[in-house]
Amino acid sequence: MNDLFMERQWNQTGEGKFVFLMNGEEIGTYQRGDDWKKEPTTFNILQNEYNIEYSSGLFSRGNIKILNESGEPVLKLKSIPFSLNFNFEYQNRQFKLVFKDAPLWQWSIMEKDNLVLSYKTDLSKGTTGLSIQSREDADSDYLFDFLLGHLILGKEKKDVME
Description:
By secondary structure, the chain is mainly β.
C-alpha cells in the first residue's frame, strides 16, 4: 500500500459537486443527486458519463449499479445479507466492497484478501477529509475511486461519527 504512489485528490467545487485529480491532473467530476427530487448521481471519468442507480426490489434492496451513457451496467454490486458489504465482478475478476465504522467510516475494495483501494474518513485536521490507500495497479482505472467517492464524499462530521 502506498499513499504516495499516485496522488489521488478530491476537491469540492460546490454543493454535492467534486472534481477528482490524479497527480494534479483532472480525471473527472462527480455530482451527487438528490433522492427526494429524483435527481440522479452522475459522474464523468475521462469524458465518459456514468450514473449510479440503487435497486429497490424486495430481493435486491441495497444493490448498486453503475451505468454508462447508454444505460448499460458496467458494475453491479450485490449486497451481502445482514451486512453493509457487497460482492461484485469487474473485468472478469471477483471483488468485495467492505465497510468498517470503527472509529470512523472506511470503505475498501478487496480482491481476495488483498486491498485494492481504500477511502477512510479522516478528521485529524478538524474538518472531514480522506485518507486514501491504493495498490499500485489501482492507478489505471478510476471507476473504483468514483464508487468509493460516492459512498464517502459530502458526508459531514456528524454523519461519520454516528
